[in-house]
Amino acid sequence: xxxxxxxxxxxxxxxxxxxxxxxxxxxxxxxxxxxxxxxxxxxxxxxxxxxxxxxxxxxxxxxxxxxxxxxxxxxxxxxxxxxxxxxxxxxxxxxxxxxxxxxxxxxxxxxxxxxxxxxxxxxxxxxxxxxxxxxxxxxxxxxxxxxxxxxxxxxxxxxxxxxxxxxxxxxxxxxxxxxxxxxxxxxxxxxxxxxxxxxxxxxxxxxxxxxxxxxxxxxxxxxxxxxxxxxx
Length: 232
Description:
With about 230 residues, the chain is α+β, with helices and mostly antiparallel strands. It folds into two domains: about 15-100, Zinc/RING finger domain, C3HC4 (zinc finger) (Herpes Virus-1, 2-Layer Sandwich); about 115-125 and about 145-215, Phosphatidylinositol 3-kinase Catalytic Subunit, Chain A, domain 1 (Ubiquitin-like (UB roll)), CATH 3.10.20.90. The chain is built from eight helices and eight strands. The strands form two sheets. It has a five-stranded mixed beta sheet with strand order 5-4-8-6-7, covered by helices on one side. Strands 2-1-3 form a three-stranded antiparallel beta sheet. A hairpin with a 5-residue loop joins strand 1 (about 15-20) and strand 2 (about 25). The N and C termini lie far apart (about 65 Å).
């Protein structure tokens, strides 16, 4: 409901916000509504005494969020605008490229679930940060960068499983996927990572991985060993 216009019931298009109460609507919807009313259609606050259109503002941030969260919305809207201006070429000289539907998904950094993302994956060299490598297994990992093409909906958990299988990493070690030096959550998708870290498609999505001993298993085995020693 936070992404939908109460006037038309659809997702925001050209999201526009009333500055008095911060309620948002599609630009076309709220402009038409304020032609016959001076009050917010949600909370009934007065927008302006005489010229309500002076107190509404385009909300680019909100619109970007809507486009990123609703698959296909941006592409469909751009197509609708291109079709409109193809039928009304006289009006095409007005407005921006986005107004005319001449902006590609790549330019807007819109990513869809079924899109294929190019990524690079390489071993995280902790020594570059001035720290020592923790274990021999990490030292023995191949540091060569590898390139993959994966669906945008692929999760970090799937990528970890792929690395474990491909590199034959035993279960006594845990694999962490990272962006720069920050470990990524298992439920993050590649699309999430691209948005969170503002990947601009100027190269493969740069990811890293590291391999560390599985601390939980080590603690359990250590506790079992102590128990056996005390019994003997």
